[in-house]
Amino acid sequence: MKMSNKILIALFVFLVAIGTLGINYKTFANSAENGKISSTAKEEKSIAPDTVYVTFSVITNDKNSETAVSLNNKKTTQMINALKKSLTPDETVKTSAYSLNPNYEYNNITKKNMFKDYEVKNNVNLKLKDINKVGKLIDIAVKNGANNVDNLVFTLENTDAVCNQLTAQAAQKARKNAEALLNSLGMKIVNVANISYNCSNLVPRAVYADNFMSMKAAGSEADSTPVTIEAGEIKITATVTITFNIK
Length: 247
Fold this sequence. Notes:
By secondary structure, the chain is α+β, with helices and mostly antiparallel strands. The chain is 36% helix and 39% strand. Helix 2 runs antiparallel to helix 3.
């Protein structure tokens, strides 16, 4: 009888111990499943641009609005026709904006704003795939009626392939960084909890001659000076942040 009681007591203690171990194990397993680590990595690549956009403006003034419009149409047509001679089928030139506005100036004697003239402005956008000829076409535009070069942007027309490559490389780097840290702690990745990524490009500012933006209509001294343009490179950056479940 005493022996049976001892056996029952021992069995009870054993079961209690098993139950305690089971609870502790379950608690540890749950905390491991909820354990997370985030890793961020970046990949960059500099690429020469393959497209350039230039905006020219043709400005004419006259006290008669019809005359101002007529002069502008004549100059703009002359400039566009001259540019088209040097374009390939995948390059374009077209009007992007047009305005007609009266100009006024303050009269110190009458103390009033007095009508001066009408100003017509025609903005023309040029798209080039051969960026090496941008300087030449700026010269052509200025000699054929363009008063100003308002904008010059070098870009990469399609960044998808480069972004996909850099994003994949950044993702691999992020995982390797996380694995290296976890290995030192005796832990490992279970699966991916979340991924966020971004791919952006930094467009270079064109380097050009000092007289570039201030070139005036044909016949000015600046027209005889060739325009030198340095395109630079476009920096594409992919950033990936991955959150892993760990144990």
